[in-house]
Amino acid sequence: xxxxxxxxxxxxxxxxxxxxxxxxxxxxxxxxxxxxxxxxxxxxxxxxxxxxxxxxxxxxxxxxxxxxxxxxxxxxxxxxxxxxxxxxxx
Length: 90
What we know:
single chain, alpha+beta, 3 strands
């Protein structure tokens, strides 16, 4: 940085240039092809990645409601069978 360099190239083929500096060996530089997406994708921290849920609060609520309803049905007394057993003369 801050040094003067000498650049030489072939006017018939500008694809490569030779760079010479006072304290460096000469080297050949080639053009870089920069695409539309030139930067590599950044890695997303694990804390920002979406997590796969272990359970669902909605499904837990439905399961609790189902259990409660099943318990209420089990505790209920049904008189439907008494009517079927009764005779017409009663």
